[in-house]
Every structure is written in structure tokens, then in C-alpha cells.
């Protein structure tokens, strides 16, 4: 499979958000040229090009010199240096810092695991398809990640005066590498397991030590750290991609539970994260189960959902003392949103849908759906119970600098995706009412600027709910940003749906599939694969948009500047420098993500053809 | 179907499996759910607002605003609706100029990214990759504070004059700036200027007629049309005649330091917050448009380029007559999207206190006007902006697209 540009036609398209996709783009090739020839063709091929080269080249060199002088000589980085912590985590409670440490470690491990799991899966897919697996070249990674690495390095060099952050960075790298390494080998010799323990045991001890260093109120973080280690070990023992992915996702979910608490809907996230592994295992065993097991499983699925409803619904609606409305006020940031989104009606609907589809499956002789749902329900109850026992209290979500930007963007895109998907399907539905409602929502939201929605969040969103509901400001902002992104995601997904050829649907119809099955099994997988890069683009613009939280007095990355320059010692000092630093931070993350999405696009495309 | 053909009555499935019934039921359920939810939310809103004593009526629109608007003759006695109209004008001023600038920047940089000149290519890439990955808000603040706060401060003295750039070789000021204001030359109207503008319009029409005449000559006889030269000469000739005949109805207005030595007067009426917002958004959106332009040019089939080369067209001719017209068609819809984005992004002007729509609404809310109604008006205004732009440009777009595609 040749990917050299020369032989392929150039194909380029412009995505809905204006992102440009260029496939098989010709890289300028000057391997065979002498330097003299290269200069002639690229700099002086026409007389006017010569003039342009000299004029622009001079300007560029002057700009470069000025930039270098600014960064290394004239710039006063003192405000950045003195307030780096404020930039990164804002006014995070002093006694709770350990949570951030644990969160970062878990997240790093999760990233390592997920990357490794994705690699395992793409290898397996290639193997099944009979293709050569194309490994990622280190050069590509450097091309993507140098910006973020440069930003972190800059922060470390400019602003860090103690050993702590360096140690944390080192620990994060070790965790990420450990996560990745866990997925590497599939052989289980005693030596490899022993070598593995050499890595894991110190990690567990480190987690324990960390939880004792500062007052953490309870043992939650430590328990989670231990659970992480157990998970890593499990991944090592069951080398299946789905397990690795699930383990990574569970770790990721757990890393946020460290902040938002294991009360609330922790079970929900962890159950969702466990789905790939559960679905995989069920797929392996379901065929050998008798039909009666399917009926039992269907009953268990329904019962599990009802139990969860009674347990958590009771917690949210009826019992908890701080609850002040039907949707409740919970301590965790994301928990409260889910409580908002997953109201009582949704739970009832979910139970009906689960039981209904399980029964329908069993009636057809397919036990798998019922067993899968039952497994989810049982897992959910189990995780709920674990959450109760572990009992880590959540923090009220507040203004946490760059942390806020990243988390709000991530939470919004994750929560907005299902809504956007439904809106896109609604907009393409053949039912006029659904179509009109979806279209109206999408166009209304896309027609107004985000800032007007943020005004709603800041000023009177609470008034839409029952009296005395008091969601935290960041939660309200996340709700409106979710509503906002859902409309954009809907348009992206719609583009993906339109890109799937009609023949696919017709083939499904010819096979006698139901419309729902056609959408779920034929159209959506292809459509979503096509729009992954555009979704990353939406995530980037969402991340940039989180700077708007500045307007509603949330202390995010940009807003930190105002606090700094309000201090008497930094008044009027380094105004440009702090702004350049903020711009650099936003730029580094956005640039890396956009490079990653381009890379992803090339990879997806290669595997496509 | 077979049942009908064979003459027996078609048997219908039970109603819970009948698609026709299910369709109706699904729609009714959806509509009822949405209506009930919206009603629940609105009831809560009205109830809660009444409980805290905030009015839910719109009669505040006629009451006086009680605060001035920066850099304008808006008096605090004017009504809230006048205030909103002022904000709409300011937003439109910023969006309109910003869109024009962004388009120019985008096309130049987008073509520059495909230049054969290595320096141009790399600089364009640098520009695009930098600007498009920084939030527009940061760019606006950068222009608003980090750059313009370092401009020369008033009062000006001969020892500390405002920053100044002159037309090369003359005494006329091209650009004058301080930390308050950016002055650029403009046109000052004098006597008879109204007639002059009308005459200029007539000249434009005549030039258009000349253009069509030369085109027809070219088609009929085959001799070179030279329509640009002819039309331009007609327009300029008529313009000069009118200018002389009416006794110099217009003159140049150049920025200069006022007598008190505190202000920059004359020239186009711009202040730094307006300039910051407009330039920052033009630069930001320009980087996005550049990517669209580049992608569209690359999407023009390679054969078109090769055909132009075979016809020995020059690089300029190839772009002007073959590549760009086709690329424009591809680029049109996403570019319209970017125009809409720019218009919505003018709402970030509040960061440098430019009194655009969002900023005046924000100030009004700060001055105890009811927030739900104000935000509703704000959203309505932006919705109409978006609709206005997309309707106009969609008409243009429809004319642009090839028929039958």
C-alpha cells in the first residue's frame, strides 16, 4: 500500500467547520536536487519571486530576532513565574492538593492504557483483514506533540522552583509508560509477571504514601490507586483489546471521581467505561447459553435498573439532606449534570427499553443483548455499592485555572455527543415533527453566540428549575456549553450520515433489516468513522471557547491574568508577557489536537482503502 | 401488495406493529414531551422571577438608559431601545469591515500557502497555524491591551508626539496612533457633495455600459476588448470633470493633533477598541478562510492546471481565469459559515469595552434592567444577523453554483 503522494491524485475537501482535508498532498520533494537548484526553484524561480523572497525574508528574520529577544531578554516573566500554580489549578483548596496528584497519575495511566488498547485493536483489525499493520512512526508523534511538550517545558523551566512538580511529572510519565507497557506483550511467563510486579508494587506504595502526606479526609484516593494497580495487573493477565480499553476508561472515570467524589453517579461512569470488556466477554459466552438464561438475564436487567433507580433516585430525590429540588444539588460537578440530564423519566424509559430489547432478542433466539444488559445492570449496582463503601467526598466544582478549561471542554463534548447524535438523526428523520423540532433547536443555537448562552447560565439558569435549586456556576456553564456543542455536533454527524452512500441503506432493506437496525449497524458506524476528525475539530474550538468563561467571572486560564494584575506587586507589570503565556498555552493544546486529528484522518483513510 | 393483486382484502398488522400508527404516536409523544418540558421550565422561570420581584414585561424598553455609551453621542436620557439600536450599529460596523478584511487576508494567505516561493509558503503556514489555534478572545485582548496600551500617551507635546506614519515623500499623515485612538485618512464632505456622489453613481453606470459595449465588440469582431482600461478611463474622466465642475465638493481629511494637544482628530472616526476587535477578528477568521481557500484550490482537478499550462497561460492568468473561479464555487459555503462565525464573535468585543450589542446589553443588565428579557433580545438580534447574512449569501451562492450540479 503506497502512500507516496506523487502517484496519487490530489483530493481535498472542506469540512463543514471549515477544516480542510487534503489527502495525498504532495510534499515538496527535493531529495535529488542540489542545494543550488533547490534555492533556484523555491526562492528565485521568477524575478518577482526573488524580490518577494528578499523582502519577506528580511521581515521574517527581523521578526524572528525580535521574538527571540523578547522571549529571552526583554520579557519579564516574573508574574508568570510567581503565579504558575494559579494559572494551572486556580484557587484549588490547599488541603486537597493530593486529589490533583492522584488524578494526574490515574489519568496518565489511563492515557497509556487507552493508547495501548487502541494499538492492540488496530493490530487485531489489520490481522483479521489480512493487511499489514502500519505502526506509528516516531516522527509523526514528534510532529504532533512537540507543542505541548514545549509548553510543559516552558512552565517547568520558567515557573517551577521546587522538586515537587518535577517528581509529579516524572511519576506521570512512569504511569503512562506503565499503562502502555501493560498492553505490549501477550506472553505470560513468570519472569514477565514478576518484572511487572516490580513496577506495580512501588506504584501502589507511592499511592498509599501520597494519600498520607496531606489530609485527604478519607481513604478514597488510596482505594482508587489500589484499584488502578489491580486493573493494570488484570490487563496484563487478560490480553484482549476490549479489556485494555475498558481498564483505561475506568481509570479515566476514576481520575475524575477523585475530584467529584464517589457518591452521586460514579457507578454510572464506571459502568459505561466497563462496557467494551463486558460486551466482548458476553459475545464470547452468550452463544453457549440456553434460552432460559436469556429470560433470566432480561429480568435481571430490568430489576437492576429499577434497583439503581430506587437507590440513586432515592438518594437524589427523596433522602439527601442538601437536595433542594427535583433535580437536586449534588456535591460533584459532573454528577449534578447527569442528575439533570438523566432525570426520572429517562431512567424509566431506559428500563423499558432494556427489558423490551432483551425480550425481543431472546424471542428471536439471540441471548446476547439480554446477558449484556444484565451484566451492565449488575455491574452498576456493584459499583454503586463500592462507591458507597469507599465514600470519597466530592469538591464543589470551582474556578480552577487551566484545569477548568480542559475539564469543561472534555465534559461538554462527552455529554453533548449523545444529544448531538439524536438531534442529527432527528433532523434526518422522516417524521415531520421530529425533524422540525431538531432543526429548530440546531439553527436556533447555531445562530446565537455562546456568550449569550453563558449570560443565561450566569444570570438566570437556576430560575428555570424548581425554586431554591442552586447548581454551582461552573456546572451551569457546563450545561449551556453542552447545549451549545450539541447543535454543532449534530451538524457534524449529519454531514457524516449524508456521506454514507444510499446503497448501504438499500442493501440493509434488501436484507430485511429494520430501519433502527440499519441505522445502528450499517449507517452510524460508517458515518461516525468519517466524522471523527471533524469532532476533534469541534473539541478544539470548544476548548478555545472555554476562554469565554472569563466573562462570567469563572477563574479560568485567561481570567487568572486579571487576578494577577490586580495584585499590587504585579500591577502593570508584564501585561503582554502573561497574555503571551496564556496564548501559548491555548495554542499548544489546540495545535497538538489539530495535528493529531490530521494524523488520525490519514490513518483512518489508509485503513479504508 | 400481492394480496391486493389477488383480490383479497389486505390484512393489516395489529396497531402496535403498524408503522402508520407508530409514526403518528411517536410524533405526538415527541411534541407533547417537548411542549410539557418547555412549559414546565417557563412556568418555573416566571414563578421564580415573580418571587424575587423581577418584572417579566417588556415595558422597560421605553425607559431611559441612564448611562452613556463610550465614544459616541449617545445620551443617557435615550431609551433602552435606542441603546440596543446603537449596539446593533456598532456590531454591524465591526462585522462588516471585519468580514471584508478577513476575506482579503484569507485569499492572500490561502494562495500564499500554495506559492512556489518557499518563504511565502512557510510564512503563510506559520500565520495560519498560529492564529487559528489561539482563542479569538485572547487575540482581541492582545490587540486591545498589550499593543495599544503602549501607544504614546496624551497630552502630546513636540517632545512626545503621537505615533505617526506619513505618505512616503509627502507631508500627509497616513496613520496616527496613540493609546486612545487610531487615525487614518478619510473623506471630508463639503458643499455640493450630495450632487457629486450622484454624479459618481452615474459615472459608474456609464462605465458599466462601456464595459458591456467593449465586451460585445470583442465577441462580434474579435478585436481585444480592453474593457478594464476603457471603463476605468470613463469613470475617472467623468469623476474628474464632476469634481472640477462642482468646485471640489470633497477633500481629504487627515488625522492631526487637536489644539489642546490631548486628542487625535480628523480622519476616519475610529477608536482603539473598535480597531482591536475588527483587526483581531479579521486576522483570526482570515486564518480559517485561508485554509478553506487552500483546500478549495487543491480540490480543483489537476487536469485544469495542466490544461492551462498547455495553453501557455501565465501563472496569474491560470489563477484568475481557471483555478480561482472553480475554487470559489467550492469555497463559498464554508466561507459563508466563517462570515457568520465572525459576526457572532464580535460579541467578544466586551473584553476591550467596545460598545457592541453584547456590551451594551451587559451594561444595561448591570444597571438593573431585567436580564431574561435583555438576553432574549440579544439572542434575537444575533439570530436576525445570522439569518440576514445567510439569506443574502445563499442567494449569491445559488447564482454562483453550476446549474445541474
CA-CA gap between termini of chain B: 37 Å
Series of H and E elements of chain B: HHHHHEEEEHHEEEHHHHH
Query: What's the overall average pLDDT of chain A, rounded?
Result: 76
Structural class of chain A: mainly alpha
Percent helix among the residues of chain A?
Answer: over 70%
Report what the structure shows.
The complex is a heterodimer of chains A (609) and B (405). Chain A is mostly helical and 609 residues long. Chain A is 73% helix and 1% strand. Chain A is built from 24 helices and 2 strands. A two-stranded antiparallel ribbon of chain A has the order 1-2. In chain A, helix 5 packs parallel to helix 7 (164-182) and helix 17 (402-427) packs antiparallel against helix 22 (515-545). Mean pLDDT of chain A is 76; it is low at 1-28 and 314-342. With 405 residues, chain B is mainly alpha-helical. Among the domains of chain B are: 1-51; 80-149 and 272-400, MetI-like (MetI-like fold, Orthogonal Bundle). Chain B has helices at 2-5, 19-51, 80-112, 118-131, 136-147, 193-221, 227-245, 272-299, 302-310, 315-345, 357-366, 371-400, and strands at residues 163-166, 173-177, 182-183, 186-189, 250-253, 256-257, 264-265. A 3-stranded antiparallel β-sheet of chain B has the order 1-2-3, with no helix packed on it. In chain B, helix 10 packs antiparallel against helix 12 (371-400). The radius of gyration of chain B is 29 Å and the shape is globular. The model of chain B has no long low-confidence stretch (mean pLDDT 84).
Summarize this entry quickly:
Chain A has helices at residues 35-43, 47-74, 78-82, 84-89, 97-129, 138-159, 164-182, 190-213, 220-237, 241-260, 266-273, 275-285, 291-319, 333-341, 344-364, 368-390, 402-427, 432-447, 450-459, 473-499, 502-510, 515-545, 560-566, 575-608, and strands at 11-14, 20-23.
